[in-house]
């Protein structure tokens, strides 16, 4: 199934022969992220790979520091002999998708309603992290394209002030899979009735079909996701794994290590 997907800007390819660590939704919880990274630093080794499954941004109190922490850990891991740039992958989560859409809010046909919806779904802390004011945004949305363009342009400029933040947002992948088509890593889920190239928003908002997956998805023997909108906790089954333990909403942050055969070898929580 994955063999027909060739857009490296959308999908990341991982080595199917090594261990792969997957990190669940972080949601701006920098304290838990630092603790998890400390554990990973003691456990990971050259040859391992790591996939952040999206939602670095979101509900937590310090979104900017969470991104900084991810970038620092990436540099530290890359500094080890034998580690390659492609060994670290970042997926686009629902929060990152909303942020990108927020920066293009002037093109929305109903920007006020869109902004309200985003605020209801956790974009507020990210907006505040980059100097955004909700009231100013609402006024700009009501006043038209020109004020709204000025408002979103200021957000973009503010984000550029923080080294690596804009670059990170530009390299996020929709999904990652191993080169033997055995393991698939996504943010919120997949629609099992659609091929990988036609998942559309299912990557970010999930699908009820993911919960019902009772066999391999194409050639993939295991599908791993990092976010569950239903907040059902960490679950590992025969064909799917969910690593959302509620980080950013009062729960811990979870990472799991998977072997080449799709079996979970280890789980860490912070």
TrEMBL record:
One of its GO terms (molecular function) is phosphatase activity. InterPro entries: Ap4A_hydrolase, Metallo-depent_PP-like. It comes from the Bacteria. One of its GO terms (cellular component) is cytoplasm. This is Serine/threonine protein phosphatase. It comes from Magnetospirillum gryphiswaldense (strain DSM 6361 / JCM 21280 / NBRC 15271 / MSR-1).
């Amino acid at each position: 199934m994955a063999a027909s997907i060739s857009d490296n800007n959308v999908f990341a390819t991982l080595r199917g022969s090594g261990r792969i660590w997957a990190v669940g939704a972080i949601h701006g919880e920098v304290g838990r992220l630092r603790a998890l990274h400390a554990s990973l630093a003691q456990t990971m080794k050259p040859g391992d790979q790591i996939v952040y499954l999206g939602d670095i941004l979101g509900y937590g109190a310090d979104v900017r520091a969470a991104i900084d922490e991810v970038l620092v850990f990436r540099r530290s891991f890359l500094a080890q002999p034998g580690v390659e740039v492609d060994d670290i992958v970042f997926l686009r989560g629902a929060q990152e998708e909303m942020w990108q859409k927020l920066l293009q809010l002037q093109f929305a046909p109903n920007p006020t309603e869109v902004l309200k919806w985003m605020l209801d779904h956790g974009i507020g802390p990210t907006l505040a992290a980059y100097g955004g004011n909700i009231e100013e945004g609402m006024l700009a949305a009501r006043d038209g394209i020109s004020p709204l363009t000025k408002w979103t342009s200021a957000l973009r400029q503010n984000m550029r002030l923080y080294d690596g933040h804009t670059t990170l947002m530009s390299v996020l992948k929709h999904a990652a899979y191993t080169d033997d088509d055995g393991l698939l890593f996504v943010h919120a889920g997949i629609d099992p009735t659609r091929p990988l190239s036609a998942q559309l928003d299912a990557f970010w908002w999930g699908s009820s079909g993911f919960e019902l997956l009772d066999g391999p998805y194409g050639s993939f023997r295991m599908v791993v996701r990092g976010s569950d909108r239903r907040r059902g906790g960490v679950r590992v089954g025969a064909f799917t794994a969910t690593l959302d333990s509620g980080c950013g909403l009062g729960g811990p942050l979870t990472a799991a290590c998977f072997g080449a055969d799709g079996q979970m070898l280890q789980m860490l929580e912070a």
